[in-house]
Design goal:
With 223 residues, the protein is α+β, with helices and mostly antiparallel strands. It is 56% helix and 13% strand. The radius of gyration is 20 Å and the shape is globular. Residues 19-20, 22, 100, 103, 167-171, 211 line the site of flavin mononucleotide (FMN). Flavin mononucleotide binds at residues 19-20, 22, 100, 103, 167-171, 211.
């Protein structure tokens, strides 16, 4: 009984100890850690086990700087346009969003999670039998995003388990997704869904930061 309680507390602490890390130490990630993170990703569930994903490892400083450049360039041109149109609220918002879009800058490793179409697989054909042509593409894309998100969460938890820090990143994709996809040679049948930055970090950095969750009673209903 006592053992069970300790186990529950450990599990709960493990999940709540995962914090988004945006500042990293200049230390390489061991290749066996990279393999563990990737392996945790491929064990995510997917409909009919279609596994509609692939992962791109970006760990050369030049490549990471190049992504940062594409985003900075985009932020710069948005800011210029907002200034020319006297949209000063937007200028402030664009400036603030830089922190979130460039949160990977000091990371030694970025994983790009790419979703793939599975229209021709048995599961894709099954969806095709249920939905008209226009909708089936939407359904297939929505399911793909769910699968990639599950792979992403597996990876983030594995990163935490390994004592590393990570952060899921959508902002770079919203700002410069097309250019980043070109840079990473992502094909037209594929979609860049998420970036995950990974790195060693100064311990204590995340514990000090306030992060909360809505109360369970506000998000759960029992039927
Ligand atoms: C789909 C998704 C996209 C996110 N995009 C960004 C992002 O672009 N930049 C960023 O700094 N954080 C991003 N985050 C991290 C969230 O801001 C973070 O998870 C949230 O504030 C809760 O904090 P915690 O992860 O430390 O618990 C993203 C998280 C998710 C799940």
């Amino acid at each position: 009984m006592i053992q069970e309680k300790i186990f529950q507390e450990d599990v709960s602490r493990f999940f709540s100890s995962r914090r988004s890390v945006r500042k990293y130490l200049n230390t390489e990630i061991a290749s066996e850690d990279i393999m563990s993170i990737l392996t945790s990703g491929i064990w995510a569930p997917s409909p009919g086990n279609v596994q509609p994903w692939r992962f791109i490892i970006i760990n050369k400083k030049n490549s990471i700087n190049r992504l940062a450049y594409l985003i900075t360039e985009n932020l710069h041109s948005r800011r210029q346009t907002a200034e020319e149109n006297n949209c000063f609220n937007n200028v402030a918002l664009i400036r603030a969003s830089g922190k979130y879009a460039l949160a990977f800058k000091s990371a030694p490793l970025i994983i790009a999670l790419v979703g793939k179409s599975y229209k021709k697989s048995p599961t894709g054909r099954l969806f095709g039998a249920f939905f008209p042509d226009k909708d089936v593409n939407t359904v297939i894309r929505e399911e793909m995003i769910k699968c990639v998100s599950m792979a992403a969460q597996n990876m983030l938890l594995c990163i935490n388990y390994l004592g590393l820090g990570g952060c899921a990143l959508s902002a770079p994709i919203y700002l410069a997704g097309r250019k980043i996809s070109e840079e990473l040679q992502i094909g037209l049948e594929e979609e860049l869904v998420l970036l995950i930055s990974v790195g060693h970090y100064e311990k204590g950095q995340t514990e000090k930061r306030f992060s909360s969750r809505k109360k369970l009673e506000n998000v759960v209903s029992w039927l």
